């Protein structure tokens, strides 16, 4: 596989595919792009780069999935339309009883692929069908679609073809025995569902494709970042990770859209983040290594071990100063007696920290048990206890504390206790602003939630402010034309109208 520019200059992006083992291939890229950053590129092998300037909010690339599946889970318990991922007006496919559609339009659009999948699923034993996971279905669909393209029943284009899937990286040599065995079992199940003649089935290749999916498939989320399913987007998979990315990936239905979140000059690499970026360098590196098998060398990660990075980690995941008025960060004392505040020099005793930490742990376990058993009231008390303990233990900008408050926000939303929910929403925002770049979807969404709660509670002026901030961020990350953004715009209009009405009636009094 050489390098290919899949998307031409007209689209503003170039796609470099193929691994740089061979100097020749890289010469070709160099000739095209100049000498500027080919050293980095040769190391990374595959990447997406801009062939013109992009401004914040501009769409760099959008792609339909090669294949996708919907999924149901705790965060998103509803069934979804197999084609558009909507949850309304669903009807089950009467033949296989596995997939749902929101109407005949979506069913027709999906029919070429689903008709063959449907036949395969209909042959599977009823009890077994229930145990087919989304990953198994995704793989079955991958093979069926490849076959449909080979048979020319589904057309092939430069951006919609199996060669792109084939060129995705897998990490078979990095996998543990246990994982390999699991993939082999899954591959056998796929073969069982497909029931193709032996000459057409290669268990080893299917297992390798599972490894590809685990590092290349994307979670398809709704506008509020709740997971809806999984899709394989071979062009988008070429975009490399950065812990301080210049772009963001969001979904409109199952269409994946990559938008610039900052100015990206021509010839620069496009990056998105594969993992939660709020954590310390060590936490991010661990997550990337475990799922994607690489060590990140982004502008944040190359600072690992430097003083700024050590300070940042101690703030995000470390302890608070013994003096409650001090916001200093703590580092382990060389004599191992505990942790010393780098601002005021006070020592926090090791035993004291260990005691609170173990209380946090046992209370968190109770809290999460209450939450998973659906007892929201009990969970709210338990998480408030966790919060109280973490306030004693952690730095005020700790992400552990932030996560506890996010959970409390969710619980109080469920309980429809808007006042408590608003309090927790407001408490998370300063930490969000610290840990996320200004145009991060989560920042916009948190302002949106805040605005909606203020509106519900009659704090109209505040609602206008929060919704405006939400719009400022989300118009960059989400664009302006989706139904989700239309709703935000109309809420803001309404809030503005009410605020000015309230003001004018006050003046009349
Ligand atoms: Zn639909
Ligand atoms: Zn069906
Ligand atoms: Zn990084
Ligand atoms: Zn201090």
Task: Write structural notes for this entry.
- This protein folds into three domains: 3-63 and 233-292, Beta-clip-like (Beta Complex); 67-219, no CATH class; 307-402, no CATH class.
- The termini are far apart.
- The chain has 18 helices and 15 strands.
- With 509 residues, it is mostly helical.
- A three-stranded antiparallel beta sheet has the order 3-11-10, with no helix packed on it. Strands 4-8-7 form a three-stranded antiparallel beta sheet. A three-stranded antiparallel beta sheet has the order 13-14-15.
- It has helices at residues 23-33, 38-44, 104-109, 111-123, 126-130, 134-150, 162-166, 177-194, 203-216, 281-292, 307-317, 350-372, 376-393, 399-414, 418-435, 441-456, 460-477, 483-508, and strands at residues 13-16, 47-50, 59-63, 67-70, 91-92, 100-101, 218-221, 227-232, 240-241, 247-252, 255-260, 271-272, 330-332, 338-341, 347-349.
- The structure holds zinc ion (ZN) (4 copies).
- Residues 321, 323, 326, 328, 341, 343-344, 346 line the site of one zinc ion.
Please give the structural blueprint.
Layout (H helix, E strand, L loop, with lengths): L12 E4 L6 H11 L4 H7 L2 E4 L8 E5 L3 E4 L20 E2 L7 E2 L2 H6 L1 H13 L2 H5 L3 H17 L11 H5 L10 H18 L8 H14 L1 E4 L5 E6 L7 E2 L5 E6 L2 E6 L10 E2 L8 H12 L14 H11 L12 E3 L5 E4 L5 E3 H23 L3 H18 L5 H16 L3 H18 L5 H16 L3 H18 L5 H26 L1
Parallel strand pairs: 9-12
Antiparallel strand pairs: 1-2, 3-11, 4-8, 5-6, 7-8, 10-11, 13-14, 14-15
Helix pairs in contact: 4-6, 6-8, 8-9, 12-13, 13-14, 14-15, 15-16, 16-17, 17-18
